[in-house]
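JOB MANIFEST
job_type = single_chain_structure
chain_count = 1
residues = 210
[input]
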Amino acid sequence: MVEGLSHSAYEEEEGEEEIPPSSLASRNTLRYIILGLLGTRPMTGYDIKQAFDRAIASYWNAGSSQIYTTLKSLRHEGLVEVEVIEQKSRPNRKLYRLTPRGQAELDRWLSEPIPERFTKDEFLTKLFFCGETSDATALQHLLQHRESLLRQLQHMEWARQQYANRPTRRPRLLEYQMLVREYKEAVLRAGLEVTERAIARLKQRLSDNS
């Protein structure tokens, strides 16, 4: 059964300027990731979380609470609908799917120009100021960063083995998903190369000064 949907009302409060829905939506990429996932097939909240962990975590992550909060918002706006699948021996499942309005919103987002990216990176920000601390401290940050890069590369390799040769009914979708993984892997390997050089340089300097 498909539960009824209600459209969100963006009502202007007296004395306050109304923020257009499109401006609000543009600030939340997570909603479009979920719309994109539901564009491939109907999913439960659990399915969506699994998709994040298996395929998207290397460049975007979200916790279960964020996912369910966003699904609730999307449903309230009429962009998704939910079908409750009754199960006798297990809790009922909620299967989410795009509405025509949701598909139109996804299409609109996909056709938008991509804004310039200015990402916040705590590692690089801290590294920027490591000239104000000891080389030993900087080395520890670099070693930890190397471990993080290696873990991400390991995940990318796992994803390639899982998805590169699997049968698919949507080859163009898989083509672009693999392109994203290829791009991300190249970025990670470039970062690892720079990190390895910095680690070697600091280890040599610490050895020379000991």
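[summary]
Confidence is low (pLDDT under 50) at residues 1-27.
The CA atoms of residues 5 and 78 lie 6 Å apart.
exit_status = 0
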